[in-house]
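Need the bound structure for 2-oxoadipic acid, inputs here:
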Amino acid sequence: MMPNFLSSDAIRTLFSQAMSAMYQQEVPQYGTLTQLVTAVNERTLEANPALKNRLSAADELSRLSVERHGAIRVGTAEELSTLRQMFAVMGMEAVGYYDLSQAGVPVHSTAFRPVSDRALRHNPFRVFTSLLRLELIDDAALRAKAAAILAARDIFTPGCRALIAQHQQQGGLNANDAARFVQEALETFRWHAHTTVDSGTYRALSEQHRLIADVVCFRGCHINHLTPRTLDIDRVQALMPSRGIDPKTLIEGPPQRQVPILLRQTSFKALEEAVHFNDGTPGTHTARFGEIEQRGAALTPKGRALYDRLLAEAGTGSDNQHHQQHLSAVFRDFPDDEETLREQQLAWFRYRLTEKGTDVPPRAGESVAQLLAEDRLAVEPIVYEDFLPVSAAGIFQSNLGDVAQARSAGNASKAEFESALGVAVLDEMALYQQMQQRSLERCGVASA
Ligand code: OOG
Ligand code: NI
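Answer from helper R.:
Posting the output first, comments after.
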């Protein structure tokens, strides 16, 4: 790397900070949510000095409440592939494929995120990115109209396109260009209260699916939520109404546990906002909200299969308290201590040598179990960095306000998504496995 280039990690951090500032201005209730998250995080740390020490040792305290993810939705292959190139400037790659059509949402998605240990530690900010599937609009005339509207817009500024190209040619951006890049990139995600369509077109698209109107009728692909990290999601959910925030009914994902797994999320319901149609008439549009998340251990395919089975068994509820109790009961079948999770290969782990292990390094033939027992190896779960399709569908649905409607029973179309994206998505399981394997190799151990 040229010495005067800003690192992609640093550009990602500048970008996430700029997005946060813009979104708090655009959606004041999101600012209120972040204040609540900060207050609950502080209280949780006061009540739990051990947690505070652990986070402090990991240098996590200062950026505890900063955003962990955001989400956007785009309409065309060209938009998706240009986003891929934009996110590449910030060290973010497409990881995973999520088919939301099974849940009645006419999109498929990926997450643009950092992948290396170092980059994730620096700033794990990721963007859940959905591509509208126009082929799921059943009215042919409307489908053609939507495609024409999308073809006529450019959601990227000329400056942004130029800086992406410059980055590709030079292999980096200096601090000045990086700052300009962040400002130009931000324009793609800004809210526009003026639609590009008349009220009739908006209504017709909205009647097909509210998401279609959200993607098609605006000049850009406005950021639709940002998501800080909370240390106590149950408490933030319970306190939202006291700050005038209307939460979605259920916390998505696994129940509260001793050893957190995967991802728990909840949001406030999307706000109804004033818009102006291009025929001069006023209206409203509902798309933007705020979310919070709490992450736990990444699961192996075996652990994930168990999670999926138990989640399906638990079903959904209409009341969060009951739902969480029921989930906890069903998830008794999911081991809840690190040792069992490791022994049964349900979760991925990161290994490191202890002081003792550095003094007496592993020799060929010594097993991981033995090294752990002798306190020469230490181990901790690898954090889940991705998303969950059932949870994502729950977040989408609570913010679309319409009844779940299966559009195509599980017609995933990963190949089409990848052809729009322009590359294959990375396999998240392979990434976690490599992380575990590399950590063992750094310790001088061949395999778990
Ligand atoms: C994305 C919803 C999914 C999550 O955290 O699972 C999501 C959207 O509403 O566009 O962000
Ligand atoms: Ni989200």
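Comments: Residues 71, 73, 128, 130, 224, 265, 291, 387, 391-392, 395-396, 399 surround 2-oxoadipic acid (ligand 1) (CB under 6 Å). The chain has one domain: 8-296+385-412.
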